[in-house]
Design a protein that fits this description.
This protein is an alpha+beta fold. The chain is built from 5 helices and 4 strands.
């Protein structure tokens, strides 16, 4: 306080005006702006939630779900053999074991095998539990042993 009283009248007026302005600017920058940006983020979340809710409410209640559609699929062995035929692969062995199916392919092009595996998971509702792939002497060919299970 002694320092303030030693200032001239003009300097005291300048300090008296500058301090509240600086305090107001600091309050605006460090308190008001963060609160407003937080509110804007919350508003965006509310809009997104309402949009998702509206989409869910617009879905018919009787529409079949993915799981219901998968229950209507043919047996696993049928799906595997049909998809292998479509991929021009010849299966050498199919061994059902409970929910699992073990499949063997003696010789097949690597690219065709990879495409077939993706088709099994994506389109046939099957999950690959285990894969064992070996190179064959011919370039670009492999032998394959895999275990499949229905996707839950």
């Amino acid at each position: 306080m002694i320092r303030f009283s030693s200032l001239s009248r003009r300097e005291r007026l300048l300090v008296g005006v500058a301090l509240p302005v600086l305090a107001g600017a600091a309050l605006f920058h460090f308190a008001w702006l963060p609160v407003q940006s937080g509110r804007a983020a919350l508003r965006a979340d509310i809009v997104e939630t309402k949009t998702i809710r509206a989409l869910l409410d617009a879905t018919p209640q009787g529409a079949p779900t993915v799981q219901a559609a998968r229950r209507d699929l043919p047996p696993v062995t049928t799906r595997v053999t049909r998809s292998a035929e479509a991929a021009n692969l010849s299966l050498s062995r199919l061994e059902p074991e409970g929910d699992l199916l073990r499949v063997s392919v003696d010789t097949a092009p690597f690219v065709a095998v990879v495409d077939w595996l993706m088709t099994l998971e994506r389109d046939q509702g099957l999950r690959i539990a285990a894969v064992e792939m070996d190179r064959r002497p011919e370039p670009g060919t492999v032998s394959l042993r895999l275990t499949l299970e229905p996707d839950a």
